[in-house]
Amino acid sequence: MQSDALTTESGYAMITFIKKPTYTVKQIKNKNSESIQNIRKGQYRMNAKRYFPEMNLATGIAVLLIILGHALPNEDADVFGRGLICFLHTFCSSFDMALFFILAGFSAYNNFIAGEPLRAQLAKRACKLLIPYVVYTILSAVLKLSLTGFSAPNTDAGALAAFLLGTAPGDRRWYLWTLFVIFALFLLLAKRIKHPAVFLICGGLLYIPCIFFPDFILSSLFRYSLFYAFGIWLRIDYTRAGRNFESGKLVLTSLFLLLVMTMFSDLTPLNYPITALLGSIVILGLSSRLSKSPNTPLFRFFDRLGSFGYDVYLLSYFVQLPIGVIFYTKLGWPYLAVSLMMFVFGLMLPYLIFSGLFRKAKWLNRLRIGN
Questions:
Q1: What is the tens place of the pLDDT at every residue in 144-180?
Q2: Contact yes or no for 35/347 (Cβ under 8 A)
Q3: Any idea of the CA torsion for 197, 199, 202, 203, to the nearest 10 degrees?
């Protein structure tokens, strides 16, 4: 008797059978496609769980770009090669966080089709996201108080709200509560409506307020709902859409258009969805090609980095901020040298901490977001 459960090993989708007959690659792909169609029809629930190595690789690439963007000098810094540096900073920020939310929506799809009670799913996600938010908020307060000798704190109501929400420049904590609220909204929606177009429509409607109120303190909640919805749609239709990322013409065209928009237009709420989708296509295309070479050093590096991607992203703030304040603000080191330190140590120290210390101390896993 056959079982239709989908499993994965080393990133390749396989079909598990009690009696294991021999299947060709084409038959496995057809079976996989058939199972996805059944999932759309609601015939299967938890059997949609698969491992996509290209998505893990894309997470690793996105983390590297985000940490690089936070390490680069701001537009007001008088440094050598200022124009090129500002271009690189704009290029990274034109899509990196949007890609993060696309990947989050992609991976959350299994939760939306699961038969688990709503309250249980929300409780699990709250533990996964809000416990780290509380801990990182306490650590942020301690860090800022320890640096007040170098930069005087602002204690007005607006600054306090920005601190609690993690929306201050360079802070990453806003990602945690934003992701939790967006997950809860789309989970509630998925319990009533299953059609993928509805997710995109709701994400688009939520994005509209950002066009008129881009500096609203909760703008991240409305802005990134669109890309989270796109990630859900991508997961539902990945059998067809995933093949497009293997097209070299599509990736190169997207990269060309993204470079042109970065060079000749400002990043605004109106064109941000365009640059975000173009950049995401480029990274997903690169990761799709890289996933076909699992024995290369690049694959191993980004695959490992992607496994701790969200954790490295969050913890890098506690490495980059002290380096910037101490070595640039206090000691007056050259900005480019400080930026290089912020990038290298902001990337490697959190990775070493999570891949080493957190693996040995199981109680610290409460702080891990995972992939």
A1: 777 765 444 555 666 667 777 777 767 788 899 999 9
A2: no
A3: -110
